[in-house]
Amino acid sequence: MVTKEMKSHLDIALERWEEETLHPALRKRPERMPEFTTVSHHPVKRLYTPLDIADMDYERDIGFPGEYPFTRGVYPTMYRGRLWTMRQFAGFGTAFDTNRRFKYLLEQGQTGLSVAFDLPTLMGVDSDDPAAAGEVGKCGVAISSLEDMEVLFDGIPLDQVTTSMTINAPASVIFAMYLVVAEKQGADWKKISGTIQNDILKEYIAQKEWIYPPHPSMRLVVDSIIFCTREVPRWHPISISGYHIREAGSTALQELAFTLRDGIEYVQAVVDAGLDVDAFAPRLSFFFNSHNDFFEEIAKFRAARRVWAKVMRERFGAKDPRSWMCRFHTQTAGCSLTAQQPYNNVVRTAIQALAAVLGGTQSLHTNSLDEALALPTEQAAQLALRTQQIIAYESGVTNTIDPLAGSYFVETLTNEMERGCWDYFEKIDAMGGMIAAIERGFPQREIQEASYRYQQAVERGEKIIVGVNKFVVEEEEEIPILYIDDSVAETQRERLRQLRARRDNAKVERTLAALKEAARGTENTMPYILECVRAYATLGEICNALKEVFGTYQEPTF
Amino acid sequence: MAERKIRVLIAKPGLDGHDRGAKVIARALRDAGMEVIYTGLRQTPEQIVQAALQEDVDCIGLSILSGAHMVLVPQVMKLLHEKGLDHILVVVGGIIPDEDVPKLKQVGVAEVFPPGTLLDDIIRFIREHVRQRA
Q1: Secondary structure letter of residue A314 according to DSSP
Q2: Nearest residue to B122 via CA among B77, B69, B75, B63
Q3: With 70 as the cut, is the pLDDT of residue B2 above it?
Q4: What is the mean pLDDT of residues B58-72?
Q5: What are phi and psi of B11, to 5 degrees?
Q6: What is the pLDDT at residue A166?
Q7: String of b and e for A429-445 (b: at least 16 CB within 10 Å)?
Q8: What pLDDT, on the 0 to 100 scale, is given for residue B134?
Q9: How far does Cα A335 stand from its chain's mean position?
Q10: Do A102 and A157 meet the contact criterion of CB atoms below 8 Å apart?
Q11: What is the pLDDT of residue A4?
């Protein structure tokens, strides 16, 4: 973007500035710190100039929105055409409780649903299992059977909303339940739309909610992608997620690189199963974190699109431009929220949300101010949604596309992010791919190192957390907290008892036996899981049947 | 004879897999010169108490972020008492609403460390209180 002549002229000008203006100023007042870094410890220079992006080619590296390499956005008009989807993650207590919250959020102008499940559900454990003690309905909604799912979406027509479901190890079972509810509502599978997270690799890397070992888990993911491609074509069968990697303490670069490398692993697995890459790649979606470091986050989102476009076109030879697009959901960083002075979290979330919007996200969840303490109250959740609405309707940032393009700093950071990704890909490819890397503990160790380094920087006061290691107050203001009482577990136990007594148990046994048989072979497991669900087999029963065939997983120690 | 190193068991009871905090604490306590045993994920109260007994620890650190603390922590405390392990210092870290802190202390938890607690404060607390109990 800079000619040779301009470059040498600028070189001289920069030197002159340093000598005549900068150095005298530094002698008078040195800078506040010897080194400035992002929240991810990435070094940041004092000043960026056209020299930093001298090698860039506008058309090749930045280009136009809606066109390869999509640095400026996946759509030609971006938010001028349609705003991002405001999708607040919600779920607690019983399906009845969450159904009421969903209806409230829809009335408040939310444009998509997003289901948070409780831990037993995430682990494929029924609410009445002893292992679920104390956890039923706490971190999300308790769903143990089709019956719970019917209640969850009661009065919400599934062909008129889009639903995102955050579930991984038992994703196929929960997805099957959703499909059967749609079927019972008379909604056409060809028309319903939404996303199921279904990203098991990041579970082994970061969030650690797995059931089976990596290889059979990958098979379930591949089965559901293939099934979706054929039967539920508007659905996003996977949301390849960096969010949890970041929450586990990774850097921004690690979040991006491990997520996109997970993406490569899934695409390769589905291609290996015989599907043409362009048959399914347009329905892949991503999910990123938006943390405190404003420009680093924006650079991460921009780099995500460019790297993924190159991966899909060059590594996989995808020809459909839709296969090259990295479309993503963003959530503000839960791990950046503080229990101390919780109202400060509103400000953090607003800045993070703004970064996601300037980064070109397709949908967004903003965290509530009370989430370092508990699940959000209705008031806190409303304020979080309003934060998005203020950015969308008042700030003016949606008027033009990718407004930070051409910033010497943002473009440099974007380039550095991209380079960092290629380096990580090379390392992981050399290990034999992501599953092999996970089995060696590579991404896990990288994240642990980064999170420990960050914590030490906080301890030493090198990184400041307002209200925690600086500007601390002694007497904290109390804020209202949402409590989930233990009657949820009791209600669930009773509902399950009645269900097990009422349903056709012989049919349940038959469908479970057929699923096990399919799991032992190579057939697609989805149709068998659907049959189990239709017979009202519970989540736990279905997952246990698969456990008998696939076994369980113990994390390697490192 | 050299003074015995403080032995700490770091455990994650319940179904939650978010182990960032547990692992950071384990490493910080190790760096502070303690012997640390990390149980790994998804341990039942029985497994935790059994490990504490076998490893002869001075302190148990329970990490819970899932809201299940009022069920899981009292179970651990009860089992410790039944095995005659009341001398073990028990501390809890994670997402614990203020309201629950006195209830946890009532069943014998020595301290609760909310998000944002500095590692040095945790290290100091464990050193001082293990010494007092010795």
Answers
A1: I
A2: B63
A3: no
A4: 93
A5: -135, 145
A6: 96
A7: eeeeebbebbeebbbbe
A8: 67
A9: 14
A10: no
A11: 84
The residues that bridge with B36 in the sheet, in sequence order, are B8
Determine which of A122, A138, A479 to mutate to test the interface with B (most B C-beta atoms within 10 Å).
A138
| The pair of three-digit structure tokens given for residue A469, joined into one six-digit string | 């290691």
- Please report the pLDDT score of residue A558 as a whole number: 56
pLDDT of residue A87: 86
Residue ranges of B 29-48 with Cβ closer than 8 A to chain A: 40-41, 44
A73 touches A66 (CB < 8 A): yes
- Beta partners for A331? A289, A365
Q: Which SS3 state, helix, strand or coil, does residue B38 take?
A: strand
Question: Which residue of A125, A132, A207 is in closest CB contact with B18?
Answer: A207
Distance CA A277, CA A268 (A): 9
Per-residue pLDDT, B67 = 86
What is the pLDDT at residue B115? 85
CATH class of A58-459: alpha beta
**How many angstroms separate the CA atoms of A81 and A411, rounded?**
25
Q: ipTM, 2 decimals?
A: 0.87
Residues from chain B contacting residue A208 (CB–CB below 8 Å): 17-19, 41
A135 contacts chain B (CB < 8 A) = yes
Closest-CA residue of A relative to B73 is A134
Provide the chain B residues 93-132 that lie in CB contact (below 8 A) with chain A.
95, 97-99, 114-116, 118-120
> H or E element: which one contains A496?
helix A487-502
* Residue B85 phi, psi dihedral angles, 5° rounding: -105, 30
Rounded-to-10 torsion of CA A330, A450, B128, B37: 100
Distance (Å, rounded) from C-alpha A414 to C-alpha B130? 50
**pLDDT attached to residue A1:** 63
E-assigned strands of A265-420?
285-290, 328-332, 363-365
DSSP β-bridge partners for residue B11: B62
Annotate B93-128 with DSSP letters as a single string: EE---GGGHHHHHHTT--EEE-TT--HHHHHHHHHH
Specify the pLDDT at position A106.
86
Q: Tell me the shortest Cα–Cα distance from B41 to chain A, in angstroms.
A: 8
In terms of residues, how long is chain A?
558
Q: What value does the CA radius of gyration of chain B take, rounded to a whole number of Å?
A: 13
Using DSSP, state whether A146 is helix, strand or coil. helix
pLDDT along chain A (558 residues), means of 10: 84 97 97 95 97 96 98 98 90 93 85 90 97 92 98 95 95 98 97 96 96 97 98 97 97 98 98 97 98 98 98 98 98 94 96 98 95 88 95 98 98 98 98 97 96 93 93 83 86 97 98 98 98 98 98 81
Which pair of tokens denotes residue A504?
């056709």
Domain limits, chain A: 58-459
Contact residues, chain A, for B95 at CB < 8 Å: 339, 372-374
pLDDT of A90 reads 85
Radius of gyration of chain A (CA): 24
Residue A84 to chain B, least CA–CA distance (Å):
29
What ranges in A432-470 are assigned the alpha helix state H?
A: 434-439, 442-459
Please state, in angstroms and as integers, the Cα–Cα distance from residue A210 to each residue in A181, A311, B18, following that order: 25, 27, 12
Inform me whether the C-beta atom of residue A344 falls under 8 Å from chain B C-beta atoms. no
For chain B, give every domain's residue range.
7-133
Measure in Å the smallest separation between the Cα of A390 and chain B Cα atoms.
29
Q: Are A312 and A60 in contact (CB under 8 A)?
A: no
Q: Which amino acid is at B120?
A: D
Copy the structure tokens of residue B128.
Answer: 């001082």
pLDDT single digits (tens) A154-211: 999 999 999 999 999 999 999 999 999 999 999 999 999 999 999 999 999 999 999 9
**CATH code of the region B7-133:** 3.40.50.280
Q: What are phi and psi of A18, to 5 degrees?
A: -60, -45
